[in-house]
Amino acid sequence: MAELNHYLILSGVLFTIGTAGVLLRRNLITVLLSIEVMLNAVNLTFIAFGHFLGSADGQVIVFFVIAVAAAEAAVGLALVISLFRHVETLNPDAFRQLRG
Amino acid sequence: MGLNLILFYAFATLAVVTSLLVVAQSNPVHSVLLLIGSFVALAGLYVLLAAPFVAVIQIIVYAGAIMVLFLFVVMLLNAPQEDAVQAGIMESGATRALGALLALALVAELVWAVSRSGAAALGSAGEGRHSWSVTEIGVMIFQDYAFAFEATSILILVAMVGAVALAGRHLAEKKS
Predict the structure, then answer these.
(1) Among A75, B13, B19, B69, which has the minimal tally of Cβ within 10 Å of its Cβ?
(2) Above pLDDT 90, what percent of chain B?
(3) DSSP A30-52
(4) What's the CATH code of the domain at B41?
(5) Alpha carbon of A94: minimum distance to chain B alpha carbons (Å)
(6) CB contact under 8 A, B69 and A73
(7) What is this structure's pTM?
(8) What is the largest CA-CA distance in chain B?
(9) Chain B neighbors of A1, CB-CB under 8 A
(10) Mean pLDDT calculated for residue range B29-49
């Protein structure tokens, strides 16, 4: 049977993949997708702990995390569109000016 | 080896492989579609953890709504290929190798730390554990977490106004 250890290690692996994506990739869309991977790794930890400790609080918090992730995706993608209109690229290294 | 464990390994492998491909793909459209696969695998894990409500909103809200938003933006911007690698300290192969090495070190450290913790003492998943119904979770959201729920609604309103203001700024500038 799968123990809590299995879920925590899987969550750690997924979180590391997301972190590596944020740090290594040079494409704003992929960076936002990597942040979603990290959020999902944290959600898995909440659900696993909630299940093994016999509490529903983990599921409620995941509900809120998904709501915040939706808000983050909407604002983040609006920023990407706004930046793309100025510089015509998705490379984060190209955004060097504070002036619009 | 029980069915629970076999399913766990199947979903875990699917989640890790698709997440790795999300990061490795150069085409953002492929990345978005692979991330939907990763979300489906995680929804399967939530079902194994007796959380059917979260599994369903994971599919409907995450894979259904948020990923479609990403897909819209990728196709709207129509810039699928990553920009050519520039010569610089951040883009050199040695720095990437160092980053990958540090990521592997972080994984090894996490595995070591988790295996030394007392987490295994909590037993195994599945039988004999309470499966929370949508009614119970709804009562918790509207009683214990009522303030957080209302705050989330304000957050979503702010995000909506912010997204429209940011993405539609050029229209306002044209008019004036």
Answers:
(1) B13
(2) 45
(3) HHHHHHHHHHHHHHHHHHHHHHH
(4) 1.20.120.1200
(5) 10
(6) yes
(7) 0.88
(8) 69
(9) 2, 4-5, 124-126
(10) 93
